[in-house]
Amino acid sequence: MAKKSFQELINSPGMPVLVDFYADWCGPCKAMSPVIQQVASQFNGKLKVIKINVDNNQAAASQYRVQGVPTFILFHKGQQVWRQSGAMPAQQLTQVIQQYV
């Protein structure tokens, strides 16, 4: 199966897509990992979560002008509807996602 392009991934019909731009060397990214997993399981079947390593995917990172990691971008019907850089509590992330699921 061919790897889907970033554009194909975020155009997921019917459900919002949360993209986590991270780097292996980033401490706050590691801290957010369990939060992202918790949110993914909480919205299982209603939300798609994609993790993008900025070191391996510089094209996607530069396309969305990701300058710091972690950066979270929520896409709905292929459109960017929310974005935030830096770690945040799960509750804050959940509140944002609930507006779109």
Name the features.
single chain; 101 residues; alpha+beta; Glutaredoxin; globular; Thioredoxin-like_sf; electron transport; Thioredoxin
Describe the structure.
The N and C termini lie far apart (28 Å). Helix 2 links the parallel strand 1 (17-22) and strand 2 (48-53). This protein is of the alpha+beta class. It has a single domain, classed as Glutaredoxin (3-Layer(aba) Sandwich), CATH 3.40.30.10. The radius of gyration is 13 Å and the shape is globular. Strands 2-1-3-4 form a 4-stranded mixed sheet. It has 4 helices and 4 strands; from the N terminus they run H-E-H-E-H-E-E-H. The model has no long low-confidence stretch (mean pLDDT 92). GO terms for molecular function: protein-disulfide reductase activity. InterPro entries: Thioredoxin, Thioredoxin-like_sf, Thioredoxin_CS, Thioredoxin_domain. Residues 1-101 form the Thioredoxin domain. This is Thioredoxin.
Strand order of the largest sheet: 2-1-3-4
CATH architecture: 3-Layer(aba) Sandwich
Number of domain modules: 1
Given the structure, what is the number of helices? Answer: 4
Q: Kindly, what is the distance between the CA atoms of the first and last residues, rounded to a whole number of angstroms?
A: 28 Å
Summarize the biggest pleated sheet. Answer: 4 strands, mixed
Got a strand count? 4
Strand content: 15-25%
Tertiary shape: globular
Remind me, CATH topology? Answer: Glutaredoxin
Order of helices and strands: HEHEHEEH
Task: Identify the CATH class.
Answer: Alpha Beta
Task: Give the structural class.
Answer: alpha+beta
How much helix is in the residues?
Answer: 25-40%
